[in-house]
């Protein structure tokens, strides 16, 4: 028997995943967009009309968090198809252990402005561009914990975390 899409559980095994979740649900607009998508499939235009806000940033952070999925809506004959979105998960299961220092770093990263993190993001991106992609190598080169690097990478629109490595988004 297939599990309905909105009833799946998101597993969180990495504490740095909390950075995007807290940023997402710390915003009234992002939360409202998520709640609307929990009710069913909607296009970007339908979401904008329903919320009265620009929903592009919300869709981007929800996509990066892995909380939404998309598909093409079949249009009426002669019209172009529209992308529509819905939530992927309705439940969350967290299973990780980390030091208080690491979780405090992650919470700090979550609530700093983009400008306050720009220097750290830039330093990490430059290392990755040079080919230093492993968490161990980045930790040594930047004198930062891997939890801090992972959390900062989650905030960057140019970096993605792939296991114990970072990659530049194409």
Write the SSE topology.
Elements: E1 8-12, H1 17-25, H2 28-38, E2 42-43, H3 44-51, H4 56-64, E3 68-73, E4 82-87, E5 89-94, H5 100-111, H6 114-129, H7 135-142, H8 146-155, E6 159-162, E7 165-168
Parallel strand pairs: 1-5
Antiparallel strand pairs: 2-4, 3-4, 6-7
Helix pairs in contact: 1-5, 2-4, 5-8, 6-8
Would you write up a description of this structure?
The protein is of the alpha+beta class and about 170 residues long. It has two domains: about 10-95, Winged helix-like DNA-binding domain superfamily/Winged helix DNA-binding domain (Arc Repressor Mutant, subunit A, Orthogonal Bundle); about 100-170, no CATH class. About 50% of the residues lie in helices and about 20% in strands. The strands form three sheets. A three-stranded antiparallel β-sheet has the order 2-4-3. Strands 1-5 form a two-stranded parallel ribbon. It has a two-stranded antiparallel ribbon with strand order 6-7. Strand 6 (about 160) and strand 7 form a beta hairpin. It is elongated.
Keywords:
single chain, 170 residues, alpha+beta, Arc Repressor Mutant, subunit A, 7 strands, elongated, disordered N terminus
Uncertain residue segments? 1-6
SSE string, helix = H, strand = E? EHHEHHEEEHHHHEE
* Sequence of strands across the biggest β-sheet: 2-4-3
CATH topology of the largest domain: Arc Repressor Mutant, subunit A
Binned strand content: 15-25%
Determine the structural class based on helices, strands and strand pairing: alpha+beta
Write down how many β-strands occur, each being a DSSP E stretch of 2 or more residues: 7
The CATH H-level superfamily of the largest domain is Winged helix-like DNA-binding domain superfamily/Winged helix DNA-binding domain
């Amino acid at each position: 028997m297939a599990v309905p899409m909105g009833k799946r559980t998101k597993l969180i095994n990495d504490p740095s995943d909390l950075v995007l979740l807290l940023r997402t649900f710390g915003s009234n607009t992002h939360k409202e967009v998520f709640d609307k998508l929990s009710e069913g499939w909607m296009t970007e235009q339908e979401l904008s009309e329903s919320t009265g806000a620009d929903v592009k940033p919300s869709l981007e952070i929800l996509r990066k968090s892995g909380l939404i999925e998309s598909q093409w809506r079949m249009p009426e004959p002669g019209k172009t198809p529209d992308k529509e979105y819905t939530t992927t998960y309705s439940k969350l299961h967290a299973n990780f252990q980390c030091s208080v220092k690491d979780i405090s770093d992650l919470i700090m990263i979550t609530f700093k402005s983009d400008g306050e993190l720009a220097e750290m993001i830039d330093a990490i991106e430059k290392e990755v561009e040079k080919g230093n992609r492993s968490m161990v190598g980045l930790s040594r080169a930047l004198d930062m914990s891997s939890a801090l690097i992972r959390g900062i990478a989650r905030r960057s629109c140019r970096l993605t975390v792939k296991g114990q490595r970072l990659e530049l988004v194409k």
